[in-house]
Amino acid sequence: MKNCSFIYDEILLFVRLLNLRADLKKPQDLDLNRKDDEKSHLTTKKLLISICNLEFILENALKNIHKRMFDCGVKYADEVYEKAKAKLSLYRQTLVRCYIMIKSSAFSSLIDSANYEYIPDDDVSDYAKEVMMCCVLQQAELELCSPQLTSECLQATVQNAFVNLLDQLEAREPASEREATQRVIDICALEQALGGFTNLETRTHVNAFRAGLVEQLDQR
């Protein structure tokens, strides 16, 4: 009876955590509509820690609770376990998407600032250097807090960055031969540094864009 009471308490805990009651707050609600001063408390590091906590619950605590419920003969133990697992998994994916969205916005702001009004001499443009540094900082944060998410998150953010950059560059023709040359330099540098995080479709797009610039230079 004591074990059953303990299991019941744990079930109530997960009921509150997973919002199985309508009068309790949903875990998917990240309170993104809060005031600006309250939003500042939501950091990417906290998101990564929350994701790790959820993964621990999914892989360890939830399975242990399910086993105890089953051993005590709790009715519908399998159904409770599957529903709890589904809700936790969905919430984890929500947090991962939120993290990727925040990091992608950082890349987007750098790409939006990309222009060729000032062209360096035999060097990569400043915006390209900042994009690479942004990737390094994100990788360092992931390796420190959630190394298992490094590949997934970097692939998503870098992929979005390349797509946005190519869309922006293709929207305007190079104003001069020097600008076209600088674009080739920047694209090659970014591809060499970050190409490992892009898929085949994006790499093909990058190669086609670079080939088009080289062809323009050959014709001049």
UniProtKB/TrEMBL annotation:
<keyword id="KW-0653">Protein transport</keyword>
<dbReference type="InterPro" id="IPR029175">
    <property type="entry name" value="EXOC2/Sec5"/>
</dbReference>
<dbReference type="GO" id="GO:0006893">
    <property type="term" value="P:Golgi to plasma membrane transport"/>
</dbReference>
<dbReference type="Pfam" id="PF15469">
    <property type="entry name" value="Sec5"/>
</dbReference>
<comment type="similarity">
    <text>Belongs to the SEC5 family.</text>
</comment>
<feature type="domain" description="Exocyst complex component EXOC2/Sec5 N-terminal">
    <location>
        <begin position="32"/>
        <end position="218"/>
    </location>
</feature>
<protein>
    <recommendedName>
        <fullName>Exocyst complex component 2</fullName>
    </recommendedName>
</protein>
<dbReference type="InterPro" id="IPR039481">
    <property type="entry name" value="EXOC2/Sec5_N_dom"/>
</dbReference>
<keyword id="KW-0813">Transport</keyword>
<keyword id="KW-0268">Exocytosis</keyword>
<comment type="subunit">
    <text>Component of the exocyst complex.</text>
</comment>
<dbReference type="GO" id="GO:0015031">
    <property type="term" value="P:protein transport"/>
</dbReference>
<comment type="function">
    <text>Component of the exocyst complex involved in the docking of exocytic vesicles with fusion sites on the plasma membrane.</text>
</comment>
<dbReference type="GO" id="GO:0000145">
    <property type="term" value="C:exocyst"/>
</dbReference>
<dbReference type="GO" id="GO:0006887">
    <property type="term" value="P:exocytosis"/>
</dbReference>
